[in-house]
Amino acid sequence: MTTKELLYVEDALGHEQYFQTQCAQTAQQIKDGELKNLAQQMQTKHQEIFQNFYSLL
Fold first, then answer.
1. What is the pTM of this model?
2. DSSP assignment letter at 14
3. Which of 4, 6, 14, 48 has the fewest CB atoms within 10 Å, i.e. is most exposed?
């Protein structure tokens, strides 16, 4: 993996961690069950994406 590619993966990992955190915080604040579930699903999806990027290292 080139240095540029490694930097891209590291950047993507950081973004996915941020998105996970934001989705978790949002889910905690939402009272509507359906919207809360959607935010939790998005958190799970970003966790999966993070793992996919991490596996490239």
1. 0.86
2. H
3. 4
